[in-house]
Specification:
CATH class: Alpha Beta
CATH topology: Aspartate Aminotransferase, domain 1
Number of strands: 6
Largest sheet: 6 strands, antiparallel
Radius of gyration: 15 Å
Helix content: 25-40%
Shape: globular
């Protein structure tokens, strides 16, 4: 990760430092969380430390189901989804950009599924994220 910010195990992100780090992309993160809550119910936000090379990541869960990971970087964040076969098929049929579809289809398949990750700055990809969350929840 080029701009990994929160990589000290003893320093989990606080809301103020997260807001400062994300800058103009902070409202986009809050929009994602609000959208999930409004559409699907209460979610759990769980910060986990994945080691010095991967740092602190925000795991968003609906009940006990993993929806996505948020990796904070300077002025943006990376969002990571893991999709099973049925969900991959639904993503293929969706209206998200072909570049994202192609990235998902070319991703290595693991037992838990295929990964799709992309950077979000300001309000970029909000519509795509909402579509991907809907697919994740419904599959």
């Amino acid at each position: 990760m080029s701009d990994l910010i929160f990589n000290q195990k003893d320093q989990p992100p606080e809301e103020s430092s997260l807001k400062n780090t994300l800058g103009k992309s902070y409202p986009a993160l809050k929009n994602v969380i609000l959208h999930i809550t409004e559409q699907f119910g209460v979610i759990t936000e769980e910060w986990k430390f994945y080691g010095k090379n991967y740092g602190w990541q925000l795991k968003l869960l609906l009940k006990k189901r993993n929806l996505c990971f948020i990796i904070p970087e300077k002025d943006c964040f990376k969002i990571v989804f893991i999709f099973g076969d049925k969900a991959v098929s639904e993503v293929e049929k969706s209206d998200i950009p072909d570049v994202l579809k192609n990235e998902l289809l070319s991703a290595k398949k693991y037992l838990e599924g295929r990964g799709l990750s992309f950077m979000v700055s300001e309000r970029s990809h909000i519509q795509d994220i909402q579509t991907l969350i809907r697919i994740k929840v419904n599959n």
